[in-house]
Structure formats: structure tokens, C-alpha cells
Design goal:
Blueprint (H helix, E strand, L loop, with lengths): L1 E4 L1 H11 L11 H4 L12 E4 L8 H22 L3
Antiparallel strand pairs: 1-2
């Protein structure tokens, strides 16, 4: 499984890159302190499996059933011409 970083990790990387060679931060000191009453954002990781691509008869019949269901719904709304 692959992990996909969210936007929270991008801000984490920018924060570590903001340090200069002598160890000082380029941000003002007030931005480095957390605001009272606020919790730190947790780092979220999305884990997703690969999509299955099937070309067998079962997948074709499932697709045909979906097409027929859609055609039946559209046929009711359009009516006879």
C-alpha cells in the first residue's frame, strides 16, 4: 500500500526548511508559539489500495446491468416522443 502525504505534512516540511544555518527561524517569534486554546494539527496519512481492473464476463455483465438501469431511469423521464 502507498501512503499519500496530506497538506499538513507540506507545512511541516516548510517549517523545517525555514531554519537558517545558525539555527534561527526566519519567522517572527510570535508565529512559532501556538495560540492559547488551540491544539496542534495531527499529521494524517491516507492509505488506499490499487484499483482493480477486470475484463472478465462478470464485469461486463455488471456494466451492462448498470447501463440498463440508467436507460430505464432516463426512459421514464423522457417519455414517448
Amino acid at each position: 500500500m502507498a501512503t499519500i502525504p496530506t497538506t499538513g505534512s507540506a507545512s511541516l516540511l516548510r517549517g523545517s526548511a525555514a531554519l537558517q544555518r545558525d539555527g534561527r527561524s526566519t519567522r517572527p517569534s510570535s508565529a512559532a508559539r501556538p495560540l492559547p486554546g488551540r491544539r496542534a494539527r495531527s499529521l494524517s496519512v491516507v492509505r488506499a489500495s490499487a484499483k482493480d481492473i477486470a475484463f472478465d464476463q462478470a464485469s461486463r455483465s455488471a456494466l451492462q446491468a448498470g447501463v440498463e438501469k440508467l436507460a430505464a431511469a432516463v426512459g421514464v423521464t423522457l417519455g414517448p416522443r
